[in-house]
Amino acid sequence: MKLTTILGDITKISCDAIVNAANTSLLGGGGVDGAIHRAAGPELLKECRTLNGCPTGKAKITKGYRLPAKYVIHTPGPIWRGGGSGEETLLRSCYKSCLELAATYGCKSVAFPSISTGVYHFPLEKAAPIAVQTIMDFCKENGVVEEVTMVCFSEDTKKYYDEALARWSEE
Ligand code: APR
To answer: How much is the pLDDT for 171?
Structure first.
């Protein structure tokens, strides 16, 4: 399995599934959630309304509609409250739940945004190593997903994922 980081806009990525950093209502919002809904068009919200929300750390899948990606996997990340409320476990669960769902749907290529590190204020220096370790651990056990891309929206975000990936490769 190949894990790479790129600087870009996840709504432009043509892969089997892109992941949306959603909230538990799954009814849209700002940040990457807003961008994905704008790019996918109104049918995405229509399908999301049928899903009855999603608990933090879990994931639900919809079609991609007008997006280049075939599917959108929606996962509400944890809101950072200082680290004492199980945030790290919940973030790990986000990445694992998304990859499990992607594999179930036969997705070979998956693109993630940096879940929870925007509005939800999860510190990047903690989020990036959690993401890299969880993705690598999952793909060691599962052969369906062949390519994972971390789509970073800023150079600063990409720096943290590049560092986490470099550190993982050295271990
Ligand atoms: N492509 C890729 N990444 C993006 C894009 C985009 N088009 N737009 C924003 N991002 C990045 C942000 O810069 C950040 O690094 O996605 C990361 C996650 O930030 P948020 O979108 O704020 O998500 P999060 O911190 O998980 O907060 C989720 O915000 O938008 C609401 O409805 C959403 O309530 C939920 C909350």
So the answer is: 84
Domain of 102 in residue numbering reads as 2-170
CB of 53 within 6 A of ligand 1: the answer is no
**How much is the pLDDT for 1?**
87
What is the tens place of the pLDDT at every residue in 115-165? Answer: 999 999 999 999 999 999 999 999 999 999 999 999 999 999 999 999 999
What's the count of helices (H) and strands (E) in the chain, helices before strands? 5, 6
CB of residue 69 inside a 6 A radius of ligand 1:
no
From 9, 16, 33, 162, the catalytic residue? 33
- One-letter identity of residue 137: D
CATH classification of the domain holding 156: 3.40.220.10
**Count: domains in the chain:** 1
Q: Can you list the positions of beta strands (E) in 8-146?
A: 17-22, 60-63, 71-76, 109-112
Q: What is the mean pLDDT of residues 35-47?
A: 98
Is-contact 30 54, C-beta < 8 A? no
